[in-house]
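User: C-alpha cells for this one?
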Amino acid sequence: MILNKQENQNIEFKESWRDEYIKWICDFANAKGGKLYIGVDDSGKIVGIDNSSKLLEDIPNKIKDTSLEFFSRRNWFSKKRR
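Assistant:
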C-alpha cells in the first residue's frame, strides 16, 4: 500500500524510529505543524514497524524526558548568569 502523500516541509516519512527524530517533532511544533510518518519509506510505501504499541507508548515519554532535560539545563544557565 502506498500513501497518497509526498514528503515536503510538513510531511516526513521514516521507515523506523530513531530517538534523533524528536528533533523533527520539535521543529514541527515550532513551525506551522507537520506529520512524521513512521513505518513509511521515501516513496510513500507503508513498510510497517515492529512493536508499534510499545513505540506509541515510548515516544511521548521520550519527548517529555527530552523537554524536561532541555528546560532543566536552560534554568541552570539562567541561574548561573544571575
